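Sample intake sheet
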Amino acid sequence: MGIFRKKTPAPQLSREDALNCIPVKSEAIQASHTPEGMVRLHYPLVLKPWIAELAQRFSGAPYRPPSRQLELDELGSLTWNLINGKQTVKDIVRQFSRQTQVHPKEAEAAVTRFLRELGRRGIVGMTPGKQTMGDGNA
């Protein structure tokens, strides 16, 4: 019975490998700017497949996932605007630290926490960047 089998955890990246990843915005995200200059993200809510199946059966119409919106504060908007699909997390942390004039360690903690939360919501993904995944330097 494989129904209740525990999932094997994903392999953990080293800190250096994680900082060398490149954050990429999801194509399903629609970003807009508020009058105050903040970023507002509209994103589809990801449901478990069986919940989506139930929703489609009971509604009778083709299933459209519900959407959510997230309004970013000033620092979140700054970080969002630094994500371009080319810069590594380390590059974003460096620019964030420079623009906000915070200590690099504090910037690293804030940016990585923010990216982790966006990743959990399916708003951004990570691709391996330069010298990642088994380069021998841990």
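Comment: Residues 82 and 95 are 8 Å apart (CA to CA). The domain at 15-43+72-127 is CATH 3.90.930 (Outer Surface Protein A; domain 3).
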